[in-house]
């Protein structure tokens, strides 16, 4: 009987801590790798200034900064989810693992996106990866809301209004990334400005509760 229970709940106690630590380590390595394309940019020559180099490589720099901040926000939501659990099941393990796979792929995709002159096909891959990360994070939160027995005793349930905001946040951002991917095929110049739309969307979908209460999956 104990063996059957272990199959349903393979991770408890210290195993949860190791899952969180492993996930954080993978994200830390991935965001560090995001900067590697910038390291390869040569410094200014005798007839150049630093601003000339920055101007010539503005696309790579902008892609790095945008991707870094978006990953940081996604990690924050992911961290809140994992910090709210007392145990995890097979679904949590594989959803989290697939989320990490998408995070690890992001430096490679981001480098291609920043360096590419034709962003139509590369844009689909870049924004599609962003959408996958967002939607997989939503899957983690949705699974926990359907299985509250996995939550720790300290996890505080948000108000109904905040729960609706939290439930919408991942899908809305994921669909917005997919929309940006589609626009990048037909109108790359328009798609370049669409990331600015993430700011009002994030503000609109942010839970209104006090941050101290946001132990519920976000």
Features:
218 residues; mainly alpha; 10 helices; 2 strands; globular; disordered C terminus
Provide the fold topology.
Elements: H1 2-8, E1 11-12, H2 14-33, H3 36-39, H4 50-56, H5 58-83, E2 87-88, H6 90-115, H7 119-146, H8 160-186, H9 188-193, H10 198-204
Helix pairs in contact: 2-5, 2-6, 5-6, 5-7, 6-7, 7-8, 8-10
Brief sketch in words of this structure:
By secondary structure, the chain is mainly alpha-helical. Helix content is 72%, strand content 2%.
Descriptive overview:
The protein has 218 residues and is mainly α. Helix content is 72%, strand content 2%. The protein has one domain (2-213). The protein contains ten helices and two strands; from the N terminus they run H-E-H-H-H-H-E-H-H-H-H-H. Helix 5 (58-83) runs antiparallel to helix 6 and helix 8 (160-186) packs antiparallel against helix 10. The chain is globular. The protein starts with a helix and ends in a 14-residue tail after the last helix.
């Amino acid at each position: 009987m104990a063996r059957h229970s272990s199959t349903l709940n393979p991770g408890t106690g210290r195993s949860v801590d190791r899952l969180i630590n492993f996930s954080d380590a993978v994200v830390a390595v991935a965001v560090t790798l995001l900067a590697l394309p910038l390291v390869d940019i040569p410094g200014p020559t005798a007839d150049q200034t630093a601003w000339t180099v920055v101007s010539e490589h503005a696309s790579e720099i902008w892609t790095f900064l945008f991707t870094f901040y978006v990953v940081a926000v996604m990690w924050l939501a992911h961290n809140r989810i994992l910090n709210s659990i007392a145990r995890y099941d097979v679904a949590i393990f594989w959803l989290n693992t697939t989320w990490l796979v998408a995070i690890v792929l992001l430096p490679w995709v981001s480098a291609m996106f920043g360096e590419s002159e034709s962003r139509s096909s590369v844009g689909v891959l870049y924004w599609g990866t962003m959408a996958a990360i967002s939607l997989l994070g939503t899957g983690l939160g949705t699974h926990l809301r359907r299985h509250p027995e996995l939550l720790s005793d300290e996890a505080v349930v948000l108000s109904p209004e905040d729960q609706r905001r939290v439930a919408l946040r991942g899908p809305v951002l994921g669909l917005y990334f997919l929309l940006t991917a589609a626009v990048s095929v037909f109108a790359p110049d328009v798609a370049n400005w669409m990331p600015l739309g993430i700011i009002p969307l994030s503000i609109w979908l942010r839970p209104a509760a006090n941050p101290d209460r946001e132990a519920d999956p976000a």
